[in-house]
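Need MFS transporter's 3D structure for a figure. Predict it.
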Amino acid sequence: LNEWKGLPLDMRLINFRAIIG
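Structure prediction for MFS transporter:
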């Protein structure tokens, strides 16, 4: 899970944008 911690904000931003559409 260390690799995921390298880009948490990126994934969160992408997920947020996908949810908002």
